[in-house]
Design a protein that fits this description.
The chain is mostly helical and about 220 residues long. The chain has one domain: Tetracycline Repressor, domain 2, CATH 1.10.357. It has helices spanning about 5-10, 30-50, 55-60, 65-75, 75-95, 110-125, 125-135, 140-145, 145-160, 165-175, 180-190, 195-210. The longest helix has 22 residues, at about 75-95. The two termini are about 15 Å apart. Keywords: DNA-binding. InterPro entries: Homeodomain-like_sf, HTH-type_TetR-like_transc_reg, HTH_TetR, Tet_transcr_reg_TetR-rel_C_sf. It comes from Streptomyces synnematoformans. This is HTH tetR-type domain-containing protein.
Length: about 220
Amino acid sequence: MTHDDATAARRPPGPALPVVGGPPAERADAAQNRRRILAAAAAIVAERGPDALSMDEVARAAGVGVGTVYRRFGDRAALAYAVIDDREVRFQAAFLTGPPPLGPGAGAAERIRAFLHALVDRTEDQLGLLLVAEMDSADARFAEGSYELYRQHLALLIGRIRPEADVRWLADALLAPLAANLYGYQRRTGGMSVARVKAGYDALLAGLTAHGGPAAP
């Protein structure tokens, strides 16, 4: 099994985000309601911003009962993640199977750098929705399945550079600056540019790789 096959195989299923591909099979009427709800939610976010996203507003715009929205998505955080889903599926496909350096074929250090830079761009593009999704629940970021996929992906790559290290702790440490509330604070209050955030990651990675032994096969 390759590194990437192992990464995908060990990822726990998330409530809204598959590793790559569409949602599980569902009845035609349920699928139609899901599309209507997501289209309505995306339109509200596009027109009025993420703060306007509410279960009641989405139900009215989609022409369904609010109970249908709650049964399908559970809460506002899960709905926000579902709106994020299309970009997330493409991002996962890029780092699991896409071209190097983000995808397979590059060295571990190059792949970590490409992954983190791409994740900065994704966080920047969808910051408002991520703030909604992560702030509605203290555990939302970790309960959603994509976080564990990121963590395992980074841990496996770090292990190739620093096999003696606590790779899971280091993976969490690298992901921590991209929590939506911290990233939003740095960008909006601290005035940090995207380039500065990426440069900070480059400095961290320089320290991580400076004392590493030979890369594991």
